[in-house]
Amino acid sequence: MGTVFSVGISARLVLDMHSLNNEGTEGNQQLTRMVHIIDHAGQRAVVNAISGDMFKHIFVEHLVPLLEEAGEPLSPGAKILDADRINALNPAFVDFCEKEQSFTVNGRTEKRMAMESEILDKMLQDCSLTDIAGALVTRRRAVGRKSTVEFGWVVGLPDRTVTEQYFHVKYAPEGRAAATGADTVAGRQAIFHRPASSGIYALVCNLDVCRIGANDVTRKAAVPAASRKARAVAAVWALAATLLKPAGAQRNTQNPHIVACEGAVAVSSSSLPAPVFSPLSDRYADEVGRAAEILNAMRPGSVEVRQFRTLSEGMEILANIAESLEVPGA
Q: What is the pLDDT of residue 173?
């Protein structure tokens, strides 16, 4: 595979009977998330969708144990999947941001507050999850680590996605009984409605491999080359795991049936981006391939596109990328 700057995935997933993302509840009825989109023909449609936040969360759940297995450092907050990552449960990092420290510059030791680039170095060196998934530090100043992985909404195709409400009963021997019928059978049962959705969903995501372990301010590597590669490999594996097991909400009783998965994986070995195109369009695979041809005309051999027709083929492509990738500048 050689040097990899970025990876782009455009895929269609067929998910049946799932409830991965819900909006909230009204009374005893749980509501699924619906969004307005414009399709490739310019027509407006209302479809079921799973937010990119949910898929980012799924990705992080898979990524944390992979980073631990690779021996990469994790902050206390990252280890327990706290969304604040390096900021959470970490008084040593708070002191580094808010108190004067001793720094050695050009052979001279000086005591002062850490600069933004030094805080960013500390974030990347102390927490590999913050390095890949990003975080915002607001200790006397704002220092942000932009995520190296980006997910869009996973959107249902119009006319090929349906949502239905299903009647459920939860046996509740205490609490609700007095209000709903005391010791009768009906009084001990809580009635509620829960949605389940089935359909073809469009997924797009990017992974900027070249930014892993690199300081966004100084543009220099903040961690050793071996760590940058280990983190990049873990990130690609976590992408594969996210497709294999979308571990969102309600999985204890509504584990999604993954019926099919097809798409295209684009890999860029230069600063030109790995192309993605929304699978909301039936032409998405051709558009990704055509975009790669144009980019290769600008810079020969810089973009490779591999199409897959099944989930296992997609996993194999990502596995091959993980096994042989090299991080630029590492």
A: 66
Report the first-to-last Cα separation within the chain, whole angstroms. 15
Count of C-beta atoms within a 10 Å radius of residue 258: 16
CA–CA separation, 63 vs 59, rounded Å? 6
Pair 37, 278: CB distance under 8 Å: no
Check: CB of residue 261 under 8 Å from CB of residue 311: yes
Tell me if residue 58 falls in helix, strand or coil: helix
pLDDT per position as a tens digit, 1-36: 689 999 999 999 999 999 998 888 888 888 899 999
3-state secondary structure at position 80: coil
Torsional class of 115: left (φ above 0), alpha (ψ -120 to 50), beta (otherwise): beta
Rounded CA gap, 88 and 104, in Å? 28
For residue 272, which phi and psi values (nearest 5 degrees)?
A: -70, 140
Q: In the 8-state DSSP scheme, what is residue 174?
A: S
Mean pLDDT of 39-44: 91
Task: Name the nearest CA neighbour of 51 among 165, 278, 203, 263.
Answer: 203
